[in-house]
Amino acid sequence: MKGRVAIVTGGGTGIGAAVVRALAARGVRCVINYATSRAEAEALAAEVGEGAIAVQADIVDDAQCRALAAAAIGAFGRIDFLVNNAGRTKFANHEDLEALEAEDFVDLYRLNTVAAFQMIRACAPAMRAQDASAVVNVASVAGVYGIGSSVAYAASKGALITLTTSLARVLAPAIRVNAVAPGYVGTGWFEKRLGDEGFARLNARIAAATPMAMAATAADIAGPILMLLDPASHVLTGECIVLDAGAHLDIGLSRRPGREPF
Predict the structure, then answer these.
(1) Active-site option among 34, 109, 145, 153
(2) Is the Cβ–Cβ distance between 57 and 65 less than 8 Å?
(3) Per residue of the chain (262 residues), what is the pLDDT tens digit?
(4) Would you call 105 exposed, middle or buried from its count of C-beta atoms within 10 A (0-12, 13-18, 19+)?
(5) Is 153 a known active-site residue?
């Protein structure tokens, strides 16, 4: 992977930052996209080296997606990898059908789904020119199982998984397209809101509830993303890999008291 070039959207923090660190450790030159986290993205670029640069772009805007791709080509002359990591949610209980408006669905869909499409479209011409190009879309278990922070979020991530399948078909054999679907990931987002003690309690509760007895970190998610990008994984395309430490193995069992799970 050394010498190849990756764009990571939402790359300044969380899973995106962990992916940048993992890629840079393999000699990949990274374009760290950010919308508002300029200080974090620039500090990360300085930290990882390998010529990494931080580039601001609001990828909801197609013109800015194309400008981001152009910035990568201008800096490095190529694009090999794209990680569509940027996303957001709105919290709303699934049972509360009045908690969401139509615009909530549209707002999340614009970033979580349409922006990923726009980034792939913007990067595709340059990626087709390389010999081992790959895209990884960061979806969510919410999009697989209809769970998570809100119905709107789950719907947008479900659409991203379908987008992955569609584009894997049409971009083959030049570009592989896969997705990951993380479950709980203990990022700074939780730590800031819960404090050290609350964050520790949450991680302990999550670990106790997963077959692998762990609360995943951003670095744990970066590993499988790196695997999917690696040219050695050239047999893989159109897949969505669930990354939840086995938590999905128990989904639904707690709602069937007294019944066999199969």
Answers:
(1) 153
(2) yes
(3) 999 999 999 999 999 999 999 999 999 999 999 999 999 999 999 999 999 999 999 999 999 999 999 999 999 999 999 999 999 999 999 999 999 999 999 999 999 999 999 999 999 999 999 999 999 999 999 999 999 999 999 999 999 999 999 999 999 999 999 999 999 998 877 878 789 889 899 999 999 989 999 999 999 999 999 999 999 999 999 999 999 999 999 865 554 444 333 3
(4) middle
(5) yes
